[in-house]
Amino acid sequence: MKIEKNKKISKIDRYWGIIRNGLFLLGLRNQLAKIGIDITPYYWVQEETEPCSEPIIKDDATYTVRYLNQEELKKVCHLKPGEDYDRMMEGVEKGQLIIGLETNHKIAAYTFVELNDFDFKGRKFELGPHEAYLLNMWTFHEYRGKNLAPYLRFQTYRLLQEKGVSTKYSITNYFNKSSIKFKNKLNSKHLFLYLSIVLFKRYKWNFKLRNY
Question: What topology is assigned to 36-211 in CATH?
Answer without folding.
Answer: Aminopeptidase (3.40.630)
